[in-house]
Amino acid sequence: MRHARRRIVRRATRLAAVGGLLLGAGMVTQAVASEPSGSAGVPNASVRSAAGTGEDLVERLGSDRTAGTWIGSDGRPVVAVTDADTAAEVRRSGAAAKLVRHSMRELKSATATLRSAPRVSGTAWLLDYRTNEVVVRGDSTVSASAWAELTGVADGIGAFVRMERTDGSFTTRINGAQAILSTAGRCSAGFNVTDGRTDFILTAGHCGPEGSVWFADGRGDREVGRTVVGSFPGDDYSLVEYTGGRAGAGADVVAVGDGQGVRITGTGAVSVGQRVFRSGSTSGLRDGEVTGVDATVNYPEGTVTGLIETNVCAEPGDSGGPLFSEGVALGVTSGGNGDCDAGGTTFFQPLDKPLSELGVQLITATPPGGEQDAGPAPSAAGSGSGAAPPDAAGPGVSAPVSGEDVSNLLSRLADPANVGPGLLVIGGSLIALVATRWIRTEQDRRAYQRHYSATWG
């Protein structure tokens, strides 16, 4: 009778352990399939909404009372304000407030003075909202005398202009998610766009002048399209019209390497502190943080303004590649310094200006539970590749898609709050299985000893 009870207990324990393994596996799967928490490092929908609130507050309160906004470490927007009354109003709106000395109007006035000074190639400046300063950077190509002259201009503006020297040189990154090649050099396909009649690749303007013919291979056998319009310097964007006029199936995808891709569901504005991803044919998928907006860069070829500054690395060949976050398109790669071994600074052309001035819109996937952006229906949607010549869509559409933004998946896998409980249940169940097996083996061993002890005396 006692042995029967033991067998029942062991079987119940094993069944419970197996059930625990199944439950734990289900919890891990659910954690990976669910939305990431705001603490995972990638702003989710609630954080994006909060970041939008910060931008709305800055716009509503005005440039004399505020000096920018950024995403805090807790995912909440922080708004720089110039007085206590404005700080109280910001806090009532649900954002954090930081009292600063200089308003946005003063910061903008400082950058206007810098722009009016003699141009120095190899320099860049931007607004650092978090320190309430204008940061001026000079690369290794800037001579000591030119740097001294620019420092004199900064001293005349005020102590809130910070001068920094940096390694390397600020260059355009000619040479993307998928490579496109022409006699002008090697560049990247950024995002697919359409005017409702014809499809285009939106890429960097410095990649090549109007009329440049682009190919998907070095032999010139697979023609992609021709540059029909662009802006550089001043801005840094251009349109490559697809040969045949159609991007083809999968035009809403950007490549991230290893045959994977991310579906693009729309466009958005960036916030300082936001985690972002860049994909390029030279250095692949890289991530980092937005460190500044409205940046001005004095490339050797000319000055480009209104750029996004990030600490995401890039290398020659990544020009024009897409900048995105959670499937939201943010910009195309312009230039920077450093590389992906030592790190560096990379600048991006925001999408709002080229989309508006060129009269095009992104070819996007319909977001879950929502409608596609208003406007002309993308010609590639639902059309497959029937109208496109063979392989014409290759550079623009990238590769098979993973079904979601990689930033979401990476965040969920790295977040102990999501997968931790499931792994704990799996671990406990494995211990229980091992324990029941060990107990059974030990009981059998003792029974064996008793049996032969009784047999042989």
From TrEMBL:
Residue stretches making up the Peptidase S1 domain: 197-352
Source taxon at top rank: Bacteria
PROSITE patterns: TRYPSIN_HIS (PS00134), TRYPSIN_SER (PS00135)
Domain Peptidase S1A alpha-lytic prodomain: 102-155
GO molecular function: serine-type endopeptidase activity
Signal peptide: 1-33
Start and end residues of each stretch annotated as Disordered: 364-401
InterPro entries listed in its UniProt record: Pept_S1_alpha_lytic (IPR004236), Pept_S1A_streptogrisin (IPR001316), Peptidase_S1_PA (IPR009003), Peptidase_S1_PA_chymotrypsin (IPR043504), Trypsin_dom (IPR001254), TRYPSIN_HIS (IPR018114), TRYPSIN_SER (IPR033116)
Pfam families registered for this protein in UniProt: Pro_Al_protease, Trypsin
GO terms of biological process kind: proteolysis
Transmembrane segments: 419-439
Annotated keywords: Disulfide bond, Hydrolase, Membrane, Protease, Serine protease, Signal, Transmembrane, Transmembrane helix, Zymogen
Family: Belongs to the peptidase S1 family.
Protein name as catalogued: S1 family peptidase
Organism field: Streptomyces cadmiisoli
